[in-house]
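wait is this the right file?? whatever heres the structure
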């Protein structure tokens, strides 16, 4: 079984983990309503996607 020969330093461990940070989800402003919508997702307020009515909103 493989066993590390030396202890990994805090610096090296943290440098490896530098890519693990979470990024905020992107959002774009809807042209008609002005509401923030995630790209490539249906606008839940209007039910529109790519200019087509996808969901019937009452």
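ok assuming it is, sequence goes like this
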């Amino acid at each position: 079984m493989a066993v590390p020969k030396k202890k990994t330093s805090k610096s090296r461990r943290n440098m490896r983990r530098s890519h693990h940070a979470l990024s905020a989800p992107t959002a774009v402003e809807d042209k008609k309503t002005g509401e923030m919508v995630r790209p490539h997702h249906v606008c839940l307020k209007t039910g529109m996607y790519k200019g087509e009515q996808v969901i019937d909103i009452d």
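The chain is about 10% helix and 15% strand. so i think its the right one actually
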